[in-house]
Each structure stands twice: as C-alpha cells, then as structure tokens.
Amino acid sequence: MSLLRFDGVSKQYPGGHQALAEVNFAVEPGEMLFVTGHSGAGKSTLLKLIQLAERPNRGAVLFDERNLHNVRGRKVALHRRDVGVVYQNHQLLTDRTIFENVALPLILRGMPRAEIGKRVRSQLERLGLGGREKSLPSQLSAGEQQRVGIARALIGEPRMLVADEPTGNLDPTLSAEIMELFASLPQRGTSVLVASHDLNLVKRMKKRVLVLNHGQLVDDISPEDLADE
Ligand SMILES: Nc1ncnc2c1ncn2[C@@H]1O[C@H](COP(=O)(O)OP(=O)(O)OP(=O)(O)O)[C@@H](O)[C@H]1O
C-alpha cells in the first residue's frame, strides 16, 4: 500500500496560473525520492499539497489511502503531524535555544516534559548535535542550523519528511552531507521527498527522481536508470 498517491492532480492558483497539471505518482513507505525542475516548475506547490498548505483544483492527493480532500478543520493539524517539513532557511526561532527549537512541536502536543527531554536529546545526538542544546541558532554554522531544522521536523516521528530546497544556502560539501543524512532516514521507515533544482546533486544520490516541467510530470527516473549513467 502506497503512503502517498497523487491521482490526476492539477493546481491552478487564483489569477489563472497552472502550477501543476494532471500529476500522477505514488510513494511507498520508507522510499526516498527527489522532485526536480526549473524555477516555477511546480516543486513547492507539489510539497504544499502534501502538507495541506494548498489544495488541488482537480484530482486527489491520498495519504495512507485517505483522500486529503476530506481532511478539514482540526484534522489538518493531525495530518501535519504525519508530514515533517524542512525549509531552505530552516526558520528557527532565533531567541530560543536549540533544545527549545526542537522541542517545540512536542510541547505544542502537550507531551510530558521528561519524555520531551529524552526524545530531544536522543534526536540531537543522532544528528550530531549532542552538546549544542543550550546554544542559540546564531551560534551554529549554516550546516548545523539546517540539521536542527531536520531534527525539529523529525522529532514528532512523521511518516514522511518533505524538504524544499534544503541545501539552497549550503556549500557543495555541506549539501552532500545533508543529502546523505536524508538518504539514511528511510532505513528508519520514514519516506523522504526532497525538492531541489540542483540536478547534479540529485543525480549523484542515485535515488528516484520526478521531473517537473511547467507543472507536468515529464519523467519518473528510477535509481537503476541513474546507476547506468
Ligand atoms: N500563491 C501563488 N499565487 C499565484 N501563483 C503562484 C503562487 N505560488 C506559486 N505560484 C506560481 O506557480 C508556479 C509554480 O510555483 P512553485 O513555487 O510551485 O515552483 P517551484 O518549482 O517550486 O519554483 P522555485 O524553484 O523557483 O521555488 C510558478 O509559476 C509560480 O509563480
């Protein structure tokens, strides 16, 4: 059973711009894949539909076989727990410590403090940020800040992680490191979908790649196809 399915999905923004046209694909549990394409191709829109930050005009987005069309009101927040989001500029709270930034989603859920402490420390350790709990974001390097953003996205144990240009601000070495980190997540059962316009970086990862062109899904490249290149 697929974790995510786009079934003939079209998205037109008010004003008439067609951002996605009849897009079909499915993602299995624990699968990692990329979506790439030129600026304006529809990558961010595709990710927004998964988080319910936008809704399609036609077609259906199914998550765990549930049509997101029917997820409304308070159910939206519950759905978002299943989808961790990583942004290009990590959007950390600058006046809060690393611990507090990562703990926030669990605090909002009302989880007991002791449990939060345990989970956050273990997540930071796992991402190589042990010992940085009390630092402020400004005291960390760009790569470390991005790892905090990833820790925060993962802390609620989402079924899927979506990342929009997560290496946009990083140099090539750090970008490769962050991509390797994403690639290790499926081993823990989390599906990962990364949007990036950096085709070279994407190809080097040898994972499945969806290619968007003016809102159309024009290619769905398997890891085997990339291995031959
Ligand atoms: N809120 C909006 N209202 C109107 N048009 C929008 C809106 N958001 C995006 N668009 C348009 O939809 C198209 C797809 O945008 P989207 O942000 O999904 O592309 P993208 O592939 O992520 O681009 P980039 O790599 O530049 O971020 C673009 O032409 C964009 O101008």
From TrEMBL:
<keyword id="KW-1003">Cell membrane</keyword>
<comment type="similarity">
    <text>Belongs to the ABC transporter superfamily.</text>
</comment>
<keyword id="KW-0472">Membrane</keyword>
<dbReference type="InterPro" id="IPR005286">
    <property type="entry name" value="Cell_div_FtsE"/>
</dbReference>
<dbReference type="GO" id="GO:0016887">
    <property type="term" value="F:ATP hydrolysis activity"/>
</dbReference>
<dbReference type="GO" id="GO:0005886">
    <property type="term" value="C:plasma membrane"/>
</dbReference>
<dbReference type="InterPro" id="IPR017871">
    <property type="entry name" value="ABC_transporter-like_CS"/>
</dbReference>
<dbReference type="InterPro" id="IPR003593">
    <property type="entry name" value="AAA+_ATPase"/>
</dbReference>
<dbReference type="GO" id="GO:0022857">
    <property type="term" value="F:transmembrane transporter activity"/>
</dbReference>
<protein>
    <recommendedName>
        <fullName>Cell division ATP-binding protein FtsE</fullName>
    </recommendedName>
</protein>
<dbReference type="InterPro" id="IPR003439">
    <property type="entry name" value="ABC_transporter-like_ATP-bd"/>
</dbReference>
<feature type="domain" description="ABC transporter">
    <location>
        <begin position="4"/>
        <end position="229"/>
    </location>
</feature>
<dbReference type="Pfam" id="PF00005">
    <property type="entry name" value="ABC_tran"/>
</dbReference>
<keyword id="KW-0067">ATP-binding</keyword>
<dbReference type="GO" id="GO:0005524">
    <property type="term" value="F:ATP binding"/>
</dbReference>
<comment type="subunit">
    <text>Homodimer. Forms a membrane-associated complex with FtsX.</text>
</comment>
<dbReference type="InterPro" id="IPR027417">
    <property type="entry name" value="P-loop_NTPase"/>
</dbReference>
<keyword id="KW-0547">Nucleotide-binding</keyword>
<keyword id="KW-0131">Cell cycle</keyword>
<comment type="function">
    <text>Part of the ABC transporter FtsEX involved in cellular division. Important for assembly or stability of the septal ring.</text>
</comment>
<dbReference type="InterPro" id="IPR015854">
    <property type="entry name" value="ABC_transpr_LolD-like"/>
</dbReference>
<dbReference type="GO" id="GO:0051301">
    <property type="term" value="P:cell division"/>
</dbReference>
<keyword id="KW-0132">Cell division</keyword>
